[in-house]
Amino acid sequence: MGSRRISAVRPRRPPPRVVPQPRQPRGTGLGYTGKALRAVRRVVFEAACGDLDEVPAPTPAPAAKRRRMSDPAGCVVRPGTLRVEAAPGLPPPLPPAPAEAEAEPTVEDEDAGEEGDEAVDGAGTPPVTAAGPSDALRHAVPISSWLGEGVVQLPFIDGHVSFGEAPRHSQWHLPKVPWAALKLPPVRKDFYTEHPTTAGRRPAELEPWTTKHQVMTVGEGLPKPILNFKEVQLPPQLTAPLAGYTKPSVIQALAWPVLLQGRDMVGVAETGSGKTVAFGLPAVVHASAQAAVKPGEGPIVLIVSPTRELALQILGEMQRLTVHTKLRTMCVYGGSDRGEQVAAVRQGVEVFIATAGRLMDLLQDGVTTLRRTTYFVLDEADRMLDMGFGPQMLVLRDQVRPDRQTAMFSATWPPEVQQLAAEFLSPQHVRVQIGGLALSANHNVTQHVTVCREEDKLSRLRALLATLGGKVLIFTSTRHSCKKLAAALKGLGCPVRCIHSDMTQVEREQTMAQFRRPGESLLVATDVAARGLDVCDVAAVVNHDFPATIADYIHRIGRTGRAGATGDAYSYVTQQDANRAGELVRVMREAGQAVPADLLQLQRDFEARRAERQAKRHSPGAGTAPRPRPAPAPHRQRTAKTRWSR
After folding, report:
1. Which residues have C-beta within 8 Å of that of residue 101, sequence separation ≥ 6?
2. Could you tell me if 406 and 394 are in contact, meaning their C-beta atoms sit under 8 angstroms apart?
3. Which among 336, 440, 488, 581 is most buried, taking Cβ atoms within 10 Å?
4. For 78-133, what is each residue's pLDDT tens digit?
5. 3-state SS, residue 525
């Protein structure tokens, strides 16, 4: 009888215990897996604090914390703006220990850009202490606990999260400089020698000139304006770059004597009035009289710009003014190679142009210092405040030596700019204003306004371009309309280029370089190029889409008629733009332009409709009669028996 093999029966393993996860509220966002969540946290931390590869790796967290960090319920990603909220119940972040030695600042390949790129959104992010977030990481604080105090907000554009556009710091905390305890070298600021021709002009001779240009000056002991380049008593190597100009502009004639005397000044003038050369020439004179900058020292001249396009424009002018000197000029801005900028800054430069966000970034990381800065310029101060850089400007003020010379330039003079001037400038500063207090258009630009339908604008634009020559700049309101219009014009055989905020900085610079070449050229742009685009020979500006505000309209048409030249501005106005017809009529009349009859009719129709709506809203008894309530439904008796009735 054969033996039968009997195998042992193995007991079945119990199924793995599934830990129920708390369900997220419906409609609040998307749930991420643990792996994706860790990647998001790492990207958020890198965007806020810098590169993690240059600091020692943190010690592994306990198992419970590791599970909590990979918990998909620990974060909620909400639509619109990416909001990464730390898991509830985590311990507060450990306070960073004082650093024994200054760490080498991190170097990133790219940084935040401009117009939204560099605007700092400090809502809810934890403050950055003097030791910095990298020190917290060095002391093995989990990333999730560092984010546990608040919310990190990143741009969420067109359905995609753009981590590269996130600001590096939520709040800027720079240590205060003990100026009273420092022994600062003396600085010379007065370089002005009045020409005999300038000194011999009587006030009666200057009155027609000041009346024509609506000049208003506020201050004591004001010098007389310089009306001719022969009256500029400076070395030939400094005045040689001005040989291409016939005479100084109004803002230059008034600003040069004041700034060459070493006095603080605020200049209010329209766009395209030559403000860059107005503060640029005194800056070159000031920097040439100081000792050369050594490696590791900060710049002598600091010029802060709100946008990278304007910063590059200022760089071009300053390079032209310093061509016969030994001064080194440099421009830093977001969206470019940060490593190259850091290396060049550490070598030392005398003239430093920077956007607000990138400058604060370099100061925060200790790449440069402003202790040698004695000539400080804020350009487009009104635009700086509009972009939310007011707090950063106050931080910069405390980083520059108190006996500095400060110049501020703006296109408008609202109360916000007045308050900023009071914070920055000395009480004895001089204010030079060209034109009235209201924002006015360049009088050298002829304005043409056409009232039409939306569907007729492309055909009218095509007919207009057939009559125009030279460089033509066409403005649209959105990136989508910019791309759509450029494609439509290309389909019609027009050699057109476009520039908008979706393009990289390299693509923008290449497009602008092609547009600046001599000859006829056509460029479609959004408002990202309205302020900062400086092409001296733009023949005409076309507002294909009328801007949202009259201030944007004035800045757009200011791209032509620059440096004393004349230009034309063509605008298409539809029924959707009727609410701005009144302001447009005022601007045209102030500039001495002929207002078309259909624009006046559009204004009257809009005002009549508005008056009718207001009359209905404020009429007696309007809206006081209560609405009749619907009759209640008849109550039906329950006839069916229930189980309790048995």
Report:
1. none
2. no
3. 581
4. 333 333 334 344 444 444 444 443 334 333 333 334 443 433 333 333 333 333 33
5. strand
For 532-586, the pLDDT digits (tens) are 567 778 899 999 999 988 888 988 888 888 767 889 999 999 999 999 999 999 9
- Residue 363 near residue 168, CB atoms below 8 Å: no
Containing 40, the helix (H) or strand (E) segment is helix 34-49
What DSSP assignment string belongs to 162-219?
Answer: -GGGS-S-SS---PPP-GGGS-PPP---------HHHHT--HHHHHHHHHHTTEEEES
CA separation (Å) from 105 to 51, 335, 353, 420, 638? 10, 18, 21, 31, 80
Asked if residues 405 and 286 have their Cβ atoms less than 8 Å apart, the reply is yes
C-alpha span between 123 and 604 (Å, rounded): 44
- AA identity, residue 244: G
Could you tell me the CATH superfamily of domain 445-615?
Answer: P-loop containing nucleotide triphosphate hydrolases (3.40.50.300)
Radius of gyration of the chain (CA): 32
Amino acid in position 442: N
H helical segments located in 182-337:
196-199, 203-212, 236-239, 250-260, 275-288, 308-321
Give CB contacts under 8 A, 24+ apart, made by 497-504. 497/521, 497/522, 497/523, 497/524, 498/523, 498/524, 498/525, 499/523, 499/524, 499/525, 499/526, 499/528, 499/529, 500/525, 500/526, 500/528, 501/115, 501/116, 501/526, 501/528, 504/335
What whole-number distance in Å separates Cα of residue 137 and Cα of residue 17?
34
Report the SS3 class of residue 542. Answer: strand
CA–CA separation, 337 and 646 (whole Å) = 86
Residues 607 and 582 sit within 8 Å (Cβ to Cβ) = yes
CATH 2.140.10.10 for domain 196-434? no
- Name every residue whose Cβ is closer than 8 Å to that of residue 498 and which is 6 or more positions away in sequence: 482, 483, 485, 486, 511, 523, 524, 525
Q: How far is CA 104 from CA 48, 51, 247, in A?
A: 17, 12, 50
H, E, C per residue of 433-459: EECCCCCCCCCCEEEEEEECCHHHHHH
Sequence-distant (6+) residues with CB within 8 A of 618 are none
Residue identified by tokens 């497009």 is 511
Ramachandran sector of residue 211 (left: φ over 0; alpha: ψ -120 to 50; beta: rest) = alpha
From CA 165, how far away is CA 47, in angstroms rounded?
9
Q: Where in the chain is the domain with CATH 3.40.50.300?
A: 196-434, 445-615
DSSP H stretches of helix in 523-580: 550-557
Q: Which residues contact 172 (CB under 8 A, 6 or more apart)?
A: 120, 128, 360, 364, 391, 392, 395
Asked if 171 contacts 128 with a C-beta cutoff of 8 angstroms, the reply is yes
Q: How far apart are CA 583 and CA 281, in angstroms?
A: 36
Instruction: Give residue-wise pLDDT tens across range 508-540.
Output: 888 888 888 888 889 999 876 555 567 778 899
pTM greater than the 0.70 cutoff: no
For residues 429 and 266, the answer to whether their CB atoms sit within 8 Å is: yes
In this structure, are residues 245 and 321 in contact, taking their beta carbons and an 8 Å threshold?
no
